[in-house]
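EI: anyone free to look at a 442-residue chain?
SC: sure, send it
EI:
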Amino acid sequence: MSHNALLKRIKTKEARLGVIGLGYVGLPLCIAATRAGLDVLGLDIDETKPAMLMRGESYIKHIGSEEVTELAKSGRFAATSDFSQLRSVDAILICVPTPLTRHLEPDLSYVVTTTESIAKHLRAGHLIVLESTTYPGTTKEILKPILEESGLACGRDFWLAFSPEREDPGNPDFSTSCIPKVVGGEGPEAGYLADALYSIIVAKTVPVSSSATAEAVKLTENIFRSINIALVNELKVIYAAMGIDIWEVVAAAKTKPFGYMPFYPGPGLGGHCIPIDPFYLTWKAKEYGLSTKFIELAGEINVAMPAYVISKLAEAMDRQQKKGLNGSKILVLGLAYKKNIDDLRESPSFRLISILEDRGARVDYADPHIPVVPPTREHAELAGRKAVPLTPEAIRSYDAVLISTDHDVVDYSAILGNARLVVDTRNACRSRGVDGPNLVLA
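SC: here you go
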């Protein structure tokens, strides 16, 4: 199929779209694309996901079953684990994880294996777009050679582009279709095709000159957040030593209508982007003999936050209860990496639990969105652990409650009213008008 023929199929919505990876990025993309009138094939190596979707069942908390039911009944969606069906689609969007290794180096194994699977079923006329966050050059240096092993040539037989995902799970104000989409291709034709495709799905596209530029845009967005969160975390530590409340400082500072943007401290970074993505650029910069001092310093500060929080907890217990952490009973409130979702990726709560248990504490967790800890690659030992119900009796049985995630559905008055000690890393209590002598900010 020629470039012009594919472009016509896209603009007339005759093109069929394949989405690989039906998680926090891929599933919302499928929903947005079908609502826009495209036929979509969802693919995932986890066979349970396609089966659940076709039954109208959601496996992601903030994506309701009504949305998945609408998807399944649309007549424009199918889901499978059979990658040979890629031959039936015109465009393929890759939405797979890009984690770090234990040595903080890029782990592109999911991207590589997915691209190898695509190469087996690649045909002339395909458009392939990577959405997974990565370092500049990945699309050209990693995907292109693998796909060309098929004997087809990029830019002649198939087209390759990068368009970074910008999902914010659980944010009701920004859905996939209303978030501007950055698009960069390997060559003008690829960029034009990808831009035409996303123009159907989202309200606005932002074309850039190349796939490497688009890759750099995504990293820049997340590095900006990482560095500013590190700054406010460092200020938290300094101001706490001075007896100053960082939350009061930020609340007052953000009243300035120009030249300031509020960021908020926490127990550490979580999620699929901010704790990971900056190190992709750190790794790539070494290829050019360059260091990334700001990025690495921000990483050090943010990584140190769980230990700081535990030190504040230990200090408060020693002062208020004359008791150390060894042998104490602690309830960690909130396992998700941010409020009102069930996303556990890179959650600092895991690190908090690990440090507490290493120091001899007996630790339970409570999270209204996560009744049971699912299997995870980094914290396999916690799989199957069940959440504690937040009853007054249960709360009173702990030496301290450590608020790691500020879910809105939690009754913080009941927490503070029944707990011996509450250590709050999110300002969850005072922001809701709840305070007391047993509350400590950390």
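EI: The chain has a mean pLDDT of 94.
SC: 👍
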